[in-house]
Amino acid sequence: MIGSPRAHFRVTDSTNERAKALAAAGAPHGTLVTADEQSAGRGRQGRAWTAPAHSSILMSLVVRGLDERHAMLPLTTAIAVCEALDPLPCRIKWPNDVWLGRRKLAGILVEGRPQEGWAVLGIGLNVNLRPGDLPPELRETATSIATFSGEEQDPEQVLEALLRSLEAWTAAPDREVLAAWRERDALLGERVRWAGGEGTASGIGEAGALLVETNTGIVELDAGEVHLSTEPR
After folding, report:
1. 157 and 138 housed in the same domain
2. What does DSSP say about strands 217-221 and 227-228: parallel, antiparallel, or unpaired?
3. What digits encode the pLDDT tens for the residues 111-122?
4. Beta-carbon count within 10 A of 200 CB
């Protein structure tokens, strides 16, 4: 059962670091690490993840037995987050940022050792965080459930819904994950840029790579950062 056993911290450095240590020591599939607050939370590309105490879901989950599907975990996790928050109109910015409108609601960081049969799914989900809680540079690009809906939520209830969704989606066939992801693709048809060029986002391939139409043909991006061309450099 996903979510058990659970280790909860009032404050920890990073739930992903705690979960990786548990996984390396043999923690079973479904082991959950949560925290009220992190002192060294991380997102993709090494960015800091900031959240005041009790304002967000800060969680990491040990996943085993998905060796051949490890590459799909970021997409699967993003879909699970969106489905857990239905009917909020969540969309996904490739590969796994969850958006409400064009503001980031949740981030996902997948780490682990596929060769040893385990991975850790780290999720930071803004629940009751308010714009004033964010650093100034993030106030125009991030949001929370409470900010979007106007109503505060019980983080534990949101967590329960998220764990149920993860239970279902980590067992779903790849074709269902890809279909669900494509329905929520926030970049489809948008002009995007990355370190190697610029083009029009054209969906994702069967292995989850972003397809971008450029002047010289279709480019497949399987890693890295992609930005809307309208975003400041």
Report:
1. yes
2. unpaired
3. 988 888 899 999
4. 15
